[in-house]
Amino acid sequence: MSEMRQMVIEVVEKMLKDHVTKEHVDALAAGKWDQQLWQLFEENGMLALATADMAESDMTDLFALYPLMGKYAAPIPFVEHTLANVLLKTVGAETYDTLTTFVLVDEWHDTLPLVPWARDASQVVVIGREKLAVFALDKATIQKSTNLASEPRDTVTFSTLEAHIEVQLTAAQYDQLRTYITMATVLKSAGAIETAVALTVQFSKEREQFGRPIHRFQMVQRHLADIAGERAIMQAAAGNLLENIVPHEVGYARIRLEQAIRIVTASAHQVHAAIGVTDEHPLNHYTRRLWAWRDELVKANEWQHMLAQHLLEQDVDIWAALTAQSNYNR
Amino acid sequence: MHLPTVQFTTAQHEFRQQVRSFLQQHVADGTFRTKCDAWLSGSDPHFSKIIGEAGLIGLTWPTQYGGQGRSSLDRYILTEELLAIGAPVAAHWIADRQTGPLLLRFGTEAQKQYYLPRIAEGICYFAIGLSEPNSGSDLASVRTRAEKVDGGWLVNGAKTWTSNAHDAHYMITLVRTGPYDPQKKHENLSQLIVDLHAPGVTITPIRYLTGEHHFNDIFFDNVFIPDDQVVGELGNGWRQGLAELAFERSGPERILSTFPLLQQAIDELKKRGDVARLAEAVTLVADVWSLRNLSIGVSKVLEEGGDVDVTAALVKSVGTKFEQKVPEIVRLLLDVYPRLDADTPLDRLLAQAMLHAPGFTIRGGTSEILAGIIAKGVVAQ
């Protein structure tokens, strides 16, 4: 990891650690916009990371911050805004300094469901198979809604479908956009897994039953071992993707994430027992995000299908593919 | 702990291709047939000699002892290629993986000069004598004892579950060279090189559930071991043996034991053009990709001399669970009938994978023991 990347990670982690308390994440659930945190990111130049001229290595420096958004359940659309701009830049379009969000669509309608933070954003990047278009949100009707984690996922209705920008996408460009979008899901989820595991380990040390901390019980140890395994798997996956973005590897990571989320959320709650299912305990901020994120954007089963098609059409030898020198896309 | 990310270099990639071509040629020539779990169950001294001659045993050892002086990542690559193609490497596997590094670290100059070149040639095999009839997971409770006599040690006792002892020439044997104190079980343990053909050594098979002969009981009746066959320091056997465990636990053999079956299944599904089922099989490829990242990261830390006991336990725990999952998924994706003597590779590989699967989460530390190690590790962090 470059020194530059390490430094930015440390700065952002400190900002999140100092600012994001459980109350801030709860406030998002209550529908509040965290201007203070957003401004902090803006003033520290973190939003500009996505709009500056960018080589692929700079882009991975930005992506390297995404695990932190999951790790702290950051109640701001940092991933959405920066990723929307990365996607614009990828297809050679102008970027925006004002809050930008994005959404994937199968078909073009004047109503877009599940637009993250549409209520606060100035424009939305809409990505379909054949084209990408940017629409202003100021004249659109916005119906507020949320995902499982109480993050804004609004329904946007336009009176006219007049785009600021429209870019026709090649199949390769569309795949590239989906690869970056998937990267973001994997990375922020890896971060949320980290905290869900950390909270669980901590709880198992503090909680005593039958006169000893519960981590001393073998059945509890089995849970801890399982979730530590999943955390390590996803950390290693994230580390690899951040070194070198190889599309099919992003797909593998996304597919493997399903297992990690299933095991970590189940065992984390089981170890926390009753307290973990309360609103009062922070665990739900992480497990609900994991449950929400795995069903958003490019899902695991889409990658399974894409990779299967690829195996078939290119007659891929899987061992050769797994061990190939990953130097393309550089 | 955060593991480093490894990008293989072009030179390493070329080495992989060389090894792969070499092995593929031997498959084409009929030297061996691809098999699941061949690192434990595919003992073939003829093939061990072939790869010894090719310089593929003792890859990381200094050239003065018959090695190639290459990096441990090169060895990782070699190991992966041998396992992915299911080559019969069991005869020399333990000598290459554990005995060599042990002797290099703790052995006397004479031991290194005598044993290492022979191991590297593929003609000298070692077993490891750890488990005993009453010491399984509680390994430190070993009771096999060595009494000091003039010029050496007299060994009495028994070892069990010893893999491939019937093919091996020697065994690194963990014995008690002092009194047994239940409070200090790890003390007074030493490692001796036992010549398995010495008078007083009896080896009897413990047949695997297939009837195959991999495991053995070994009995010692006043077996004389000369002083110069003690490895390292007397009484330091526990620590010396433990040092190699991370290598044993985190390697590709905890991920790829059933890979030949997965590869075959995917080739079958491709032939049939069955995208829907390929999409299911791809989840197993995603497992391999994820586990390799982890395992390669551990091997990088090991190369740099880092402490990865907990992570190594974790790789074994997650990896072997995956190895067991492969046959369970494959049998649901294809029309198969597992038989060990089937003509169709898929049925044969499935039978091998299924029948060997129960051992994956037992050998080299049961998953229950590993869970304890991992949990204690993360709680201590």
Describe what you observe in this structure:
The complex is a heterodimer of chains A (330) and B (381). Chain A has 330 residues and is α+β, with helices and mostly antiparallel strands. Chain A is 54% helix and 12% strand. Chain A is globular and about 65 Å long. In chain B, 49% of the residues lie in helices and 14% in strands. Chain B contains 13 helices and eight strands. Chain B has helices at residues 10-28, 38-41, 45-53, 72-84, 90-106, 109-121, 237-243, 245-250, 259-272, 275-303, 309-333, 345-360, 367-380; strands spanning 126-129, 145-149, 152-159, 170-176, 189-195, 201-207, 213-226, 230-231. Chain B has 381 residues and is an alpha+beta fold. The model of chain B has no long low-confidence stretch (mean pLDDT 94). The N and C termini of chain B lie close together (9 Å). The chains are: A alpha+beta (330), B alpha+beta (381). The interface between A and B is large, with 50 and 51 residues.
* Major sheet strand order of chain B: 1-4-5-8
Estimate percent helicity of chain A. Answer: 40-55%
Which runs of chain B of at least 5 residues are low in confidence (pLDDT < 50)? none
Spatial order of strands in the largest sheet of chain A: 1-3-4-7
Secondary-structure element series of chain A:
HHHHHHEEEEEEEHEEHHHHH
Distance between the ends of chain B:
9 Å
- Report the sheet with the most strands of chain A, covering strand number, pairing sense and barrel closure: 4 strands, mixed
Determine the strand fraction of chain B and express it as a percent band: 5-15%
Topology summary:
The complex is a heterodimer of chains A (330) and B (381).
Chain A: H1 3-19, H2 22-29, H3 35-43, H4 56-63, H5 66-71, H6 78-90, E1 100-104, E2 111-116, E3 123-127, E4 131-136, E5 141-143, E6 153-157, E7 165-168, H7 171-206, E8 208-209, E9 212-213, H8 218-243, H9 247-272, H10 283-293, H11 300-313, H12 318-322
Parallel strand pairs in A: 1-3
Antiparallel strand pairs in A: 2-6, 3-4, 4-7, 5-6, 8-9
Chain B: H1 10-28, H2 38-41, H3 45-53, H4 72-84, H5 90-106, H6 109-121, E1 126-129, E2 145-149, E3 152-159, E4 170-176, E5 189-195, E6 201-207, E7 213-226, E8 230-231, H7 237-243, H8 245-250, H9 259-272, H10 275-303, H11 309-333, H12 345-360, H13 367-380
Parallel strand pairs in B: 1-4
Antiparallel strand pairs in B: 2-3, 3-7, 4-5, 5-8, 6-7
Helix pairs in contact in B: 1-4, 5-6, 9-10, 9-11, 9-12, 10-11, 11-12, 11-13
